[in-house]
Design brief:
The structure holds two protein chains of two kinds.
Chain A (H helix, E strand, L loop, with lengths): L7 H10 L6 H14 L15 H12 L11 H12 L5 E6 L2 E2 L1 H6 L6 E5 L14 H8 L5 E5 L9 E7 L5 E10 L4 E10 L6 E10 L4 E8 L6 E10 L4 E8 L4 E10 L5 E10 L4 E10 L4 E11 L4 E10 L6 E11 L5 E10 L4 E10 L3 H8 L5 H18 L7 H16 L5
Parallel strand pairs in A: 1-5, 4-6, 5-7, 6-8, 7-9, 8-10, 9-11, 10-12, 11-13, 12-14, 13-15, 14-16, 15-17, 16-18, 17-19
Antiparallel strand pairs in A: 1-2, 3-4
Helix pairs in contact in A: 2-6, 7-8, 8-9
Chain B lengths: L2 E12 L2 E12 L3 E5 L6 H9 L4 E10 L2 E2 L5 H6 L2 E4 L6 E5 H15 L7 H15 L9 E2 L5 H15 L3 E5 L7 H14 L5 E6 L12 E6 L2 E6 L1 H10 L1 H9 L1
Parallel strand pairs in B: 3-10, 3-11, 6-9, 9-10
Antiparallel strand pairs in B: 1-2, 1-4, 4-5, 7-8, 11-12
Chain lengths: 433, 253
């Protein structure tokens, strides 16, 4: 049970210091909503396994010195180096976002394809709807300094991926990031979010990404979370998918002490297609919680979801995959799978698929497995001269390969593979039981 | 000609079940031996014990390979020292690239022998050459190990691994089962290509069919966990004619 509560007076004082820009009405609405609900507690069914006490403490610390701590440029040089390192390996147009605030000088220097518009939310000429559908998304909106608004005009295909490097600096105990992406009719965009910590430290980042796909649009979205070992991160992805649109999401979670991802994919037009692929790796005492919800509001439409986890040490994974087929959403084809590899006795996974079907003509499937490496394969590899460690590594890598091979943003493939291999090597050397 | 494999009074089993009951076998370099026998006579157990499968427990007897106690070594150590087991049921390993495994296996052996790792170009040339000898499409190199392969393709893949690794002692466990005539000929050609005075090959088989294409120097019939009869290739023909019951009756009689 959570024993820590957010300091309401500090919260209200912080909200009051934010500017009277076009986000102000949203902030105030969100503040009321959050004040009524507070941080999620383990008494909530959706948060049964994931305790937000440490996140609440970090938030109280942050609010107690709100807007007095100068943090933005502490690691500016290092952040540039990180940007260079990543941009040398992934060919994309890169934005840099520090503690939720986009580097506006760098943004202005970018040469963007005509029809692709990027601005801050406060400056956006078409302020989009800011989702405040949960306590955490309300906490985010209420304390949002600013956010990022990305728009693609109709019928436009953006060739080069758009990279967003999210660097959070633990000298600021908490940060709020909000990215809103609107992709017009029959337009397409590929987005890469890379979340890193400037330095390792105890920090809570609360992020929301909203993606709206108009009819016939296509969005490939990659989120690569490679934070520091003490980091607490929550991320909420909300995708609204219109008729004939295709949304693909690839999530890789490698870092962080406590990670909670919520993915909401809302199919609101017929002929839409949603693909969700996730891979999470945990060692030590890492805690990784993935909650996904695919809403088939109309049919026919197709959704496919595969999440895989590799856990060792005393790591804990949580997977909850909801598929809801609304009344009348006939012709829905939804399938979901969650497979887990436990490499130690003390690693743990709680996996729960949930299907709710209110339509008649549907095809739905789900499956979850938890297991160890296959003994037969292990012996086969050893008879070919590979030692146990090498065979383990190869089979573990193979388990992850299915998710990696589904990564649609080709430009990032090699980089993700490299991080994955390094992380697997760490995992397989972990004997903290 | 030197002594490659020497098995004396081998007793082995899996769990509580005793399968091999005092098996003796000597295989010298340059020789091809065929081990035949009905289902359940212990043929596959013998192959698994030589390869080092941990589920099979040796309760008595010795197995020496080139004069050393083979049972002391882990499976990977046996492979690096030159033993190859062609599996009756090769395992499918999706996500592990066939070329990657071939190269890793080859390099494990080269490192053991104090050689440098093979370079990428040389490896590819060698693999392509061996595949063409076996009538295998080079696309199989980039597939997952045995992933979605037909029965015949899996067996060819085993022979490809053997051809690349050039073992000193190859044990082929029912490599001929379930093969059509073309695949059988390709597998036989692969085995014959490996025939060498410095090597020994043990063919474990249920049927005489493969022996039409690979001529053995010795044929042994296994019954109830030991060798019931040994002879030359004519023994295989006799078996084909009279069936395994004949051996059992002779052994009992």
């Amino acid at each position: 049970m959570n024993t820590v509560v957010l300091n309401q007076a500090l919260f209200e004082a912080a909200v009051a210091t934010l500017p009277a820009d076009q986000l102000a009405p949203v902030r105030n609405r969100a503040a009321v909503l959050f004040s009524n609900e507070g941080f999620p507690s383990t008494r909530d069914e959706d948060w049964k396994y994931t305790n937000m006490s440490a996140a609440t403490t970090a938030s109280n610390d942050w609010l107690s010195e709100y807007r007095t701590s100068a943090t933005i440029d502490v690691n500016a040089q290092q952040n540039q180096a990180t940007l260079q390192e990543i941009s040398a390996q992934i060919d994309a147009t890169w934005l840099i976002v520090r503690n939720g605030v986009v580097d506006s000088l760098q943004l202005q220097s970018l040469e963007l394809q005509h029809g692709l518009t990027i601005s801050t939310l406060a400056d956006s000429l078409n302020l989009p709807d800011i989702a405040i559908d949960t306590a955490l998304s309300a906490f985010n909106a209420a304390l949002l300094e600013d956010g990022i608004h990305i728009r693609v005009d109709a019928d436009l295909r953006i060739e080069r991926p758009l990279g967003i490097l999210l660097i959070d600096d633990p000298s600021l105990r908490t940060s709020q990031t909000r990215i809103v992406i609107d992709v017009g009719k029959n337009a397409s965009l590929r987005v890469i979010e890379v979340a890193r910590s400037a330095v390792d430290g105890n920090q809570f980042t609360n992020a929301v990404t909203q993606i709206d796909l108009a009819a016939g649009a296509q969005v490939d979205h990659l989120r690569l979370q490679d934070r520091g070992k003490e980091h607490i991160g929550t991320h909420r992805l909300i995708a609204e998918v219109q008729a004939e649109a295709t949304f693909s999401h690839n999530a890789f979670d490698f870092g962080g002490a406590l990670t909670r991802n919520d993915v909401i994919a809302r199919i609101v037009g017929s002929g839409a297609s949603v693909n969700l692929h996730g891979l999470y790796l945990g060692s030590g005492k890492q805690h990784i919680d993935n909650h996904t919800r695919v809403e088939h509001r109309v049919g026919p439409a197709v959704s496919k979801e595969i999440y895989r986890g590799i856990l060792t040490g005393q790591a804990r994974g949580v997977f909850n995959g909801q598929a809801i087929v609304f009344e009348g959403a006939d012709g829905t084809d939804a399938n979901q799978a969650n497979h887990n590899l436990l490499l130690s006795d003390k690693a743990e996974i709680d996996t729960k698929p949930e299907l709710e079907i209110y339509a008649d003509d549907v095809k739905c499937s789900h499956g979850a497995t938890v297991g160890q490496l296959d003994e037969k394969s292990l012996f086969y590899l050893r008879t070919r001269g590979l030692d146990v460690a090498e065979a383990n590594h190869l089979l573990t890598r193979a388990f992850a390969a299915e998710i990696l091979s589904s990564l649609v943003v080709e430009e990032a493939h090699e980089y993700v593979q490299k991080l994955l291999d390094a992380r697997l090597a760490e995992l397989l050397g972990d004997d903290s039981t | 000609m030197s002594n490659m494999l020497e098995i004396n009074n081998l007793h082995a089993g899996i769990g509580e079940t005793q399968i091999l009951n005092g098996l003796d076998l000597t295989v010298n370099s340059g020789e091809i031996h065929a081990i035949m026998g009905p289902n359940g006579s212990g043929k596959s157990t013998l192959a698994q014990v030589i390869a080092g499968h941990a589920d099979y427990r040796v309760s008595a007897g010795t197995v020496s390979y080139k004069g050393e106690d083979l049972l002391e070594y882990e499976p990977e150590e046996r492979a690096r020292r030159g033993i190859f087991l062609g599996f009756q049921y090769p395992v499918e390993i999706p996500g592990v690239n066939n070329a990657y495994l071939l190269k890793a296996a080859l390099n494990a052996k080269r490192r053991h022998n104090g050689l440098a790792e093979i370079d990428a170009f040389e490896f590819l040339q060698l693999a392509r050459k061996k595949m063409s000898d076996l009538g295998m499409d080079p696309v199989f190199l980039n597939r997952g190990v045995n992933e979605g392969f037909s029965g015949g393709e899996k067996k060819r893949n085993e022979i490809l691994q053997m051809a690349m690794l050039e073992p000193e002692l190859a044990i082929l466990d029912e490599t001929d089962s379930g093969l059509d005539i073309d695949a059988l000929k390709a597998v036989a050609a692969g085995v014959n290509a490996l025939r060498d005075p410095a090597r020994a090959i043990v063919l474990v088989t249920h049927y005489q069919r493969l022996l039409d294409y690979v001529e053995p120097d010795f044929v042994h019939v296994l019954s109830d966990g030991k060798i019931a009869r040994s002879g030359d290739k004519s023994l295989a023909l006799e078996l084909e004619e009279k069936g395994y019951e004949w051996i059992r009756e002779a052994a009992a009689g």
